[in-house]
Design a protein that fits this description.
7% strand; binds zinc ion; mainly alpha; two-stranded antiparallel sheet
């Protein structure tokens, strides 16, 4: 967990409040069109399918894609065993 990731309580509070705190928007948190307006941000695998264009998201998308690829590679290993 990085400092950019929200804890569950903050996530739930934000979802209920509908508005995202400015410092969280700056970190890349947004209501994502690609996920039916789900709250998406750093540390979430949902970023792999997110096509929203925000400079702050580029690094985070790469990080999550790498995590996703690693997960897939491990799954493949399990299946091929
Ligand atoms: Zn998005």
């Amino acid at each position: 967990m990085t400092p950019e990731e929200m804890d569950t309580d903050e996530y739930m509070r934000t979802e209920r409040a509908s508005s995202i705190p400015k410092r969280r928007v700056a970190q890349g948190w947004h209501w994502c069109d690609d996920w039916d307006d789900m709250l998406v941000g750093p540390g979430m695998l949902a970023l792999v399918g997110c096509t929203c264009r925000r400079p702050v998201l580029d690094v985070e998308k790469e990080r999550m894609q790498a995590r996703f690829d690693k997960y897939n590679a491990e799954e493949q290993k399990e299946i091929l065993k």
